[in-house]
Write a structure and sequence with these properties.
heterotrimer; A mainly alpha (252); B alpha/beta (581); C alpha+beta (70); B: 581 residues; alpha/beta; FAD/NAD(P)-binding domain; 7-stranded mixed sheet; 17 helices; C: 70 residues; alpha+beta; Alpha-Beta Plaits; elongated
Chain lengths: 252, 581, 70
């Protein structure tokens, strides 16, 4: 307790994470000047979709039980970020094939409907992986929202959620690499690294490769919170597992 | 891709230098030209290309409005129909840009039919064919109603609507096939041959009758998106003996001086909207119009108002526009005119921004004024079984100028339907079918693939650019004089004799360019010869050396035909000896 | 330079079909490629037919233009 505790404010942490996951790739794209020559709607649409996609690997990082992060953020805060950004991502990414054809409304060329059907009936790998990841993402979103009504135990649901998320990442990356408008070799590398990090993080958790190491608990929690008395560490540990227990109890 | 372009440009420069040297040494003849030419290394093996054969009753060549209606109506008659198009059905030629379609409503508010036909005939200095004008008026409403039923007016892109109707009728659609040869046997057309743009497969179509709906032709203008129209239909018909009319007339569309190739920017407001129907509204926008004014004033017209202020254009403060040839205001000569007749000689049509510049069409003729000479109102040409419709038919619906908004698209629909019906009836009546003789097939295949097989020669792009440099400047086709026409003709003959036979192609795309270039050279020759022959000024044909209209000697159309020795023959056909009903 | 860029192509070949000038082809990677931009007549048909707005077009030609009055 004699060391000066590092200061983490919750919003600052969140902004920094966003800056890494979304800000960096988008900034790079903007510097490269890939946004040019199309109408304002399409540029803004592109920017939003790209940002949303960049935050997908972030979701693996913000999962509520990330032991490293939960040292600095309460599980419920992480859970809040995970849910808020996750909902936004799912909504944006699931609606992007529809938003893409909106400009067709303003020109008497092919109608948005025709454009959409031409698009989804094109049997190329990029479109197929796009459709698959759309379906997976939609399933992910629905099963997350209606977790309480699903006949699944929390642990099983969590496993399913993780698998779905990982598949979305894989198929989504294929879709992005093949069809992405703003894909450059640099962006490809960045996305691959993010995806690898996400995968590693999830696999480590699945195979319990993160030891329940007590020493890290010695680091003080963020200064904005009241320092818990040492005997409360155990209680925190218990709190963390509480939702599971509740679930189990409910099930029973 | 980029390396290929670069090499093309290099070779273009090399070719240009080669030709300069050639001129300096005053060589002539194909052999010498070949010595100067560059080597050809095709990317594909021409001997490995496949051949495919089709058999049908009616073959429709062209996928625009006329071809579409020809296929629909021929199919409705019960004939087996194949439609071929160089581009995509409903998305090639001028059809994708046509937004106004004329319909004559027989209501009291409209101009009486007789007056309208008379107004067109007078305003066009009798170059219109009143029988075709009447035919247009009588059938236009029915065709427009057909189109309304089929959802044509719902979108600015027509391909889907056209495809749907033809598929419903089980018409076989062969897109991206360039037809290069019509085949004639015992005085009648028996089919056609061409190649696909994708893989170069050679296609032969054996048909009982053929409808040419191949549109007009120009020299790949920068100012209008009609560069795929290179008079292919008229030229292949001429080669088998059809008569071609109206080659001396010129379209007077203007472009943007500051951005001549920005066709979309120029017509954006018009192109991005759905098609619409328009009624009688005779507007004198043809004549020499802006082209003459620009020539008279030298370069740019200083005070021309922006087209956005359209109302101002209608009252352009230059006083009554007087045609240089007739010395009178054509609008004044119309009998019993209603105030609906606008006089807008100087208005840049549509929605130009910035100063306009003349001659955007670069060799295009006014709608329906050039093409196959009709022998009857069905669009029957001088060859048995060969019909034409739309801009491929020299029907002169509004004469040698454009007078009625929307008439061209309407005329294409009307004539297409009539030609299709007639062609189907004749095809169904004919019991026998002449098969395409095998030796003809071999000859045609050889001719089609010749540019690929040629070891040395000239790139079609370079020959086209050279041709454009000869015929596009204003003093050749717009402000004509005999000396310049003769000079240009000499150039064109040089291209025809020593360069067209040496066109080379490295791939199928260039093969298409080579055949298009050949057609354009022939078309240029026709335009120049017809212009030299007409020693007067009338409508969109202006001769500085004969600046007046000569009603006594030149109340006639000029037809071009192939003489027995293969050269170009010209004949005149008096206006009152037009095709019989 | 006429048709400038295709990004985000899904390979539906609508543009290849609708180009009157045969400027575009489907390349080896299954996407539309600008093969002969010299021929582009800046008519915007490809862009209008493209379901995903992948095509960017410039109002200038890639080769010098020949006009009647300059």
């Amino acid at each position: 307790m004699s060391q000066t505790p590092p200061v983490f404010t919750t919003s600052g942490f969140f902004l920094r994470a966003i800056a890494v996951f979304a800000g960096f790739p988008v900034l790079f794209m903007l510097i490269k000047g890939v946004f040019s020559g199309r109408n304002a709607y399409l540029e803004i649409f592109s920017l939003i979709t790209v940002t949303a996609w960049c935050l997908v690997p972030g979701q693996f990082y913000w999962f509520p039980r990330n032991r490293f992060l939960s040292l600095h953020l309460r599980g419920c805060m992480l859970s809040k970020y995970h849910i808020v950004t996750g909902t936004l991502l799912v909504l944006l990414l699931c609606s992007h094939p529809f938003l893409l054809v909106v400009p067709k409304l303003f020109e008497y060329g092919i109608s948005p409907r025709e454009a959409f059907f031409t698009m989804i009936s094109t049997p190329t790998a990029g479109v197929l992986s796009g459709i698959i990841s759309w379906l997976l993402l939609a399933t992910l979103g629905i099963t997350a929202w209606f977790r309480n009504v699903l006949p699944l135990k929390y642990k099983a649901w969590r496993r399913m959620h993780g698998i779905l998320a990982f598949l979305v990442l894989i198929f989504g990356l294929h879709h992005v690499f093949v069809l992405g408008r703003h894909i450059t070799p640099f962006i490809t590398v960045i996305f691959t690294l993010f995806a690898l990090a996400a995968a590693v993080m999830m696999l480590r958790r699945w195979f319990d490769l993160i030891p329940h190491a007590k020493p890290v608990r010695l680091l003080p929690p963020p200064a904005v919170r009241l320092l818990p008395p040492p005997e409360n560490i155990d209680r925190l540990e218990k709190q963390e597992h509480r939702p599971e227990k509740e679930e189990v109890e409910n099930e029973l | 891709m980029s390396s290929e372009i670069k090499s093309t440009r290099r070779q273009f420069l090399a070719g240009a230098i080669g030709m300069t040297a050639l001129g300096g040494l005053s060589f002539s003849g194909t052999a010498h030209a070949e010595a100067q030419a560059r080597e050809n290394h095709p990317h594909i093996d021409p001997d490995a290309l496949l051949t495919k054969e089709h058999v049908t009753d009616v073959l429709v060549i062209g996928g625009g409005m006329a071809g579409f209606f020809a296929a629909v109506k021929a199919s409705d008659q019960g004939a087996k129909v194949i439609l071929t198009a160089k581009g995509r059905l409903g998305a090639s030629g001028q059809t994708p840009w046509a937004r106004d379609i004329f319909a004559y409503y027989p209501t009291p508010e409209e101009m009486p039919l007789k007056d309208w036909i008379k107004a067109i005939n007078t305003a066009s200095h009798r170059t219109s064919n009143p029988k075709f004008t009447r035919q247009l008026a009588n059938h236009s409403l029915a065709r427009v109603n057909d189109l309304k039923k089929w959802g044509f007016f719902d979108s600015a892109l027509y391909s889907k609507c056209f495809h749907h109707q033809l598929k419903k009728r089980k018409v076989e659609i062969c897109e991206r096939i360039m037809i290069t040869h019509l085949i004639k046997e015992r005085g009648r057309v028996i089919g056609a041959g061409g190649f696909t743009l994708d893989d170069g497969t050679i296609h032969f179509f054996s048909a009982k009758t053929v409808v040419l709906a191949t549109g007009a032709g120009a020299f790949k203008p920068a100012g209008m998106p009609v560069c795929d129209l290179t008079s292919d239909g008229a030229m292949m018909a001429w080669r088998i003996g059809a008569r071609i009319t109206g080659k001396e007339w010129n379209d007077t569309t203007t472009g943007l001086l500051n951005a001549p190739a920005a066709t979309w920017q120029r017509w954006r407001k018009d192109l991005a909207r759905k098609p619409q129907v328009c009624g009688t509204d005779v507007e004198v926008t043809g004549e020499l119009g802006l082209n003459y004014e620009v020539w008279k004033e030298g370069a740019i017209l200083p005070g021309l108002p922006d087209a956005d202020k359209e109302h101002k254009v209608k009252h352009f403060p230059r006083g009554p526009a007087v045609h240089p040839a007739t010395g009178r205001d054509p609008a004044e000569t119309k009998p019993n005119q209603k105030p609906k007749v606008h006089h807008a000689v100087l208005s840049p049509p549509f929605f130009a921004q910035g100063p306009p510049s003349g001659g955007a069409g670069a060799g295009l003729a006014p709608h329906n004024s050039e093409g196959l000479a009709p022998v009857d109102l069905n669009g029957q040409s001088t060859i048995s079984g060969l019909y034409a419709a739309g801009d491929a038919l020299g029907s002169c619906v509004t004469g040698a100028m454009e007078l009625q908004q929307g008439a061209s698209l309407s005329a294409a629909a009307v004539q297409g339907a009539i030609a299709g019906t007639a062609a189907a009836r004749v095809a169904l009546r004919r019991k026998s079918r002449f098969a395409i003789p095998p030796d003809q097939k071999i000859t045609i295949s050889e001719e089609i693939l010749a540019p690929l097989k040629r070891g040395r020669g000239f790139s079609p792009r370079w020959v086209t650019q050279t041709l454009q440099g000869i015929v596009i400047p204003n003093f050749i086709l717009y402000i004509k004089k005999e000396r310049m026409l003769e000079a240009a003709l000499a150039y064109v003959e040089e291209l025809r004799d020593n360069h067209q036979p040496l066109l080379i192609a490295r791939n199928i795309h260039e093969l298409r360019l080579a055949h298009e270039t050949g057609n354009m050279i022939l078309n240029a020759e026709m335009k120049l010869r017809a212009s030299i022959l007409r020693r007067e000024s009338r409508c969109t044909h202006y001769r500085v050396d004969y600046p007046r209209i000569n009603e006594q000697d030149w109340d006639c159309w000029i037809n071009i035909f192939q003489t027995d020795d293969g050269t170009m023959g010209l004949e005149i056909q008096p206006f009152n000896e037009g095709p019989a009903t | 330079m006429a048709i400038k860029k295709i990004s985000g192509c899904i390979g539906c070949s609508e543009c290849v079909l609708s180009c009157p000038m045969d400027v575009l082809r489907i390349g080896d990677n299954g996407k539309a490629e600008i093969c002969w931009p010299e021929e582009c007549q800046i008519c915007h048909l490809c862009r209008m037919y493209c379901p995903v707005d992948a095509i960017t077009i410039d109002p200038e030609k890639s080769i010098p233009v020949i006009i009647s009055w300059g």
